[in-house]
Amino acid sequence: MSSLSFTKLFSSITDSSIWQESSDSRVVWVTLLAMADPLGRVHASISGLARRSNVSREATEQALAVFLSPDPDSRTSDHEGRRIEAIEGGWRLLNYKVYREKQDEEAIREANRVRQERYRKNNADVTDSNAMSRSVTHSNALSQDVTESNDKKKEKLEVEVSTSTNTTTLASTAIAVPAARGKLLGTLPLTGGRTYEVREDDLARDGPLYPAVDVIQEYRNMKGWLMAAPQRQKTPQGIRKFMNSWLSREQDKARPQGAGHGTFKGKTEHSISAGDEAIAIIRAAEQARADRATPEVFRDSETGEAGHGGLSGIRLGSGELLTPGY
Question: Who contacts 9 (Cβ-Cβ below 8 Å, separation ≥6)?
Fold first, then answer.
């Protein structure tokens, strides 16, 4: 028997038929519950159980006889209402597993309740912090207004009140979106069930920066990627950095290998450096010369025989002579 075993005593025991037995039998039953290991086994002798229960041996034997016998008034029909069965070196509580599983279910519910309470408290703290930050910002703005004329202060306060009315907290939306951001194109999921609104100003900013990318399609690809793996979702503060990194990678994929940042443009309309351009021109010229080369054996002017007396070499298509050894 483990000294660290634990048994939860349910209040419904008082509705059980076992509670109608003698007080000694009830004490013996509670003692069995307290001594049981995680499998519901109690390893003890009758005298040892009597000593642990602090009742007489005779009362212990009577209690065990009741627990080993069928009970037609039992609330469970399993085992004909028997409470225990004899095993080697002791007894086993027959309904122990049922009540232990109930205990685990209650423990899970309690853990979930504590976790939900902690989550709500953390969200409330974030909301309070954001509200305090906005309050400080608003206070600083009012202090600055002291140096302005009364007409300008009145106009500025009216604008601030209007903006405050139309702006919700960060806890309920991903980010406050002014009307100036343009038409809504879609949304990207953020942490905490929030969303980032992709608007026309995002497209106006990203389109010129990544000309080789279908930016709108990549917005859709981002959304699918974030929805497929919620653990990858970003915070409102990190979403724009994520979007820029994504589009930058797609721009790099579209750029041909070896492309640089000079002014020369090839068929793909991507720039390459002036150095790369010069190397490409030289290599192309060398290849063209090799392709045009046609071997021609020059005859000696004196003997009229090939390969004797005079110079011999290879005539290129351009008329240039390459002589061996030179």
Answer: 30, 33
Query: Residue 139: which H helix or E strand, with range?
Result: helix 96-144
Confirm whether pTM is higher than 0.70.
no
User: What does the chain come to in residues?
Assistant: 326
| β-strand pairing of 90-93 with 41-43 | antiparallel
Tokens of 10: 């349910």
Q: Roughly what angle, to the nearest 10 degrees, separates helices 96-144 and 150-166?
A: 160
- Residue pair 103/65 in contact (Cβ under 8 Å)? The answer is no
Q: Residue 67: is it exposed, middle or buried by C-beta count within 10 angstroms (0-12/13-18/19+)? A: buried
Of 40, 38, 26, 21, the closest CA to residue 90 belongs to: 40
Contact present, 8 and 103 (Cβ < 8 Å): yes
Instruction: Answer yes or no: are the C-beta atoms of 317 and 294 closer than 8 Å.
Output: yes
326 residues of the chain, pLDDT tens digit each: 445 566 667 777 787 777 888 899 999 999 999 899 988 899 999 999 999 999 999 999 999 999 899 887 776 767 777 989 999 999 999 888 777 777 566 667 788 888 888 898 888 877 777 777 776 666 666 566 555 556 665 666 555 545 554 444 444 444 444 567 899 999 999 999 999 999 999 999 999 999 999 999 999 999 999 999 999 999 999 999 999 999 999 999 887 655 444 433 444 444 445 556 556 666 676 676 666 554 444 344 444 444 444 444 444 444 444 444 43
8 A C-beta contact, residue 311 and residue 323: yes
